[in-house]
Design a protein that fits this description.
Length: 71
């Protein structure tokens, strides 16, 4: 996982599955820009997003992970 702009290994405590459409996050990102990402990403995650080769996939994966966590 990415923590404060650095990739780290973390141990999982549970298993959950959530799906998020990468295309949907690409459209949201185009429409709202960084403002959209700032609503649900931490400062460290925003740093990771800035260097991500696939920003839409990064956004979708973070959204799905957080959605699964709060269920």
């Amino acid at each position: 996982i990415c923590v404060d702009g650095k990739m780290e290994e973390k141990q999982m405590r549970g298993i959950g599955v959530d799906l998020a459409s990468v295309g949907r996050f690409a459209r949201l990102s185009e429409r709202f820009g960084e403002r959209f990402a700032r609503r649900f990403l931490s400062a460290g995650e925003l740093e990771c997003l800035a260097v991500s080769a696939q920003p839409s996939a990064f956004l979708a994966s973070r959204w799905a992970a957080k959605e699964a966590l709060f269920k």
